[in-house]
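This part of the workshop introduces the protein records we will be handling. An example says more than a description, so a record of this kind follows.
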Amino acid sequence: MPIFKSSDELKNILGGFFEIMVADPQIGAKLKDSKLVIRFNYKNPVLSITADCSRSEIKIIYNDNATIPEIEMFMDADIAHKFWLGEINLVMALARRQMIVKGPIPRILKLLPVIKPAYKMYKEYCVINL
C-alpha cells in the first residue's frame, strides 16, 4: 500500500517539507547558490514539484509545465519518501532505475552534501505530519 494516498496528500506532506527545507537558512542558502531549476515527477500518486533556485527567493511550484527545468527526476512517491528518510542511496537508486534523471547528474550529486541535514529534518517532520 502506498505511503501517500492521494496527490493532495503528497503535495501537503512532501511539498510542505520542501517549503520548510528551502526556508532553512543553511540548506536554502546553498540551494539558492546552485541556481538550479529541478523538477521532481512523482507517480503513485501523480504530482510534480519544481524547485526554482534561480530566483532571488526559491520558489516551489506544483504541476508546473511552464518552467523549464535543467534537471528532471522521475520516481515513485514511495521511493522519494524513503530517500528523504535516508533509507535509499541516490547513486544506488539511479543504478537500479528507481530514480531516473534527465539532465546533468553531477549537478545532482553535488547537492547531496547540501541536503544531508534534511534527512533528520524529514524524519522529525514525518512524526508530526504523517
